[in-house]
Amino acid sequence: MFPSASHRVGVDPLAAAVRRALGLATLGSLMLGSPALLAQTAEPATTLETVTVEAEALSLVTEGADDYRVAQTGTATRLDLTPRETPQAVSTVTRAQIEDFRLDAINDVLESTPGVTVERLETDRTYYTSRGFEISNFQVDGLRVPMPYNNVHGDMDTALYDRIEVVRGATGLMSGSGNPAATVNLIRKRPTATPQASVSTTLGSWDHRRLELDVSGPLDDEGRVRGRLVAVGQDGDAYLDRLHRERGLLYGVLEADLTDSTQLALGHTWQQNDSDGNMWGALPLYDAAGNPTDYVVSTTSAPDWSYWDVETQRSFVELSQRLSDDWSLKGTLTHLDMVSDTQLFYLYGTPNADTGGITDDQLTLSQYDRHLEQWIADVHAKGDVEAFGRRHQLVLGTDWSQSRNQQTSRYPTASFDAGGQGLPPLDDWNGDYPEPDAWAAFPSTVGDATVKERSVYGAGKLDLADRWTLVTGARVSWLDTVGEQYGSSQDTSLDNELTPYAGLIYDLTDRASLYASYTEIFNPQTEMDRSGQYLDPIEGASYELGLKADVFDGGADAALALFRTEQDNVAQPDGRVNGREAYKAADGITSEGVEVTLAGELAPGWQASAGYTYLEVEDAEGETTNTYIPRHLVRATTSYRPAALAALKVGARLRWQDDIERERDFDDGKTRQDAYALVDLMASYDFSDNLTGSLNVNNVTDETYLTSLKWDQGFYGAPRHVMANLTWTY
Fold this sequence. Notes:
The chain is mainly beta. 5% of the residues lie in helices and 53% in strands. The chain has five helices and 38 strands. The strands form six sheets. The protein has a 22-stranded antiparallel β-barrel. Strand 21 and strand 22 (488-489) form a beta hairpin.
């Protein structure tokens, strides 16, 4: 159990020892930070209770509690709003859910989030969708993080996060450019006012091993300087042949109360993902005659020499200043440095219908390197004002970002002799295929592009009348891109791009509200029209009507949303002019649907988070499109701690989707994945105040399913597997 608030720092020898060790370890981890950022002197994070910037929603932690809901969220507007005051669909995966179901990676978290699908196209590259569109917007502690290509390389570990919030629909007010899908906000753990520590070890199927350390508390007797250190080591094989993964994480953060009204925070995260035997692309789903390949679940297209290594370092500095009882000012600077190093192997086309074999001319080898560097800065003021006899909340801010994305791909040429061996049927293949001796000697294609975006924004929660509230705001953005990617120019420039936000809320009762909202987002594009002018940005908009209520005696949040999401100005081919392709802007994709969500305590000891989504997606001609996205989707997690046996907790997680399909690239047929349900079970027991054991069984019915049909290739998801965990806390 964590110490009570009455615990006096310095009295307990163990606490003093933890404090000294934490200080040394946290400072050591910060020394691993980005030299570029450490050379600067001005970065921020979130607000701490001791500084009493009490309006900061990011200071509302979920760790240490069984709760499956949060009291406030600021992801959509940076205003401090309850879920019922937020005029958009919003869901939160709390620390309790992460620990109950061992959601150790962001992919696991988003697979538990209502309205979100996780498209695992390859073993080490993942896309996400919501409301029919790819999710392209991420935040860390409410600060937008540009994400090139709308995908994530490797697994993002969740040990350093308190919770993950997801706002669905267009989110341009806080995200700037992107798609009208959703924004995912990763909210980091912060140092605690009292000492605490935990050590967690997990063993599981396929030699899965994980060790996690989390130490936090004050570093001086007065508690004005606090630190936290999170460290993770993970190693194991996988259900897929030849796939082996290693993961390391180190997160250190310091907070210091410089004065009674000023707080400085700085932190650094280092994560290393190393995969051997990873897939680039996936498996052919049918042969040359159109017959399903029906490989066994463990089949992979990776040779034994393939690998995908990703190192990510993220540093931040944050300065928070209380200006008055009603107003605060915060500035944040973040630096991200991500390096990918890979050797890859790709299969084209379809296997021979008679033999199941694949010839050498259907194979491509590549060595791919990537370096992504980002600088992101934000300064904003937030507070309350009195006007017209009522109290209102305002936020005003500006942000700036620069992202440079460098890529190099090397491809073996005819001089590389593979011996004409091809491949046997993949489920009989042992991964043996010649590896080039000198990758650097092969021709390469490169990309180097830099995107700069700066914005000013403002938002307000206006108390119009006793039952009426208006949440409104706008963002003005300037965006410049220079460079090229693989021979295609990325040069674009946008000025004064206006992104409005508006939501009107009417309180039916003290516990129920109706709302209507309109939100926008934009996405630059590099295609040119017949006159040589760049097309205007793709415009995304979301319309939403809904009902939100506090239910189960105020212990849970319930919501019903009707939505329509549009994407227009999408580039369409318009012939050739002077030897180049020309394009014209046209209406794009429209999605409509219904979402129903519930999160919180339904009865004493019973927590739940559940959501159902119905979706229709059409193209500009009114034809059904993006059929790889399920039209019916259920996400649900629940846990129960009986009053008669409070040491015991049991729970279940359900992920269900209806059937999906896609038209094949190589014939006129369709590939189909039938509807399926994945059921996970968990049980934990507190052996003492300090020691807890748990057991998780995932996919208990051993369902066989494809992880995605976004591409004309795919692979199967994990069969039934088990994880056992033992956690000691102080």
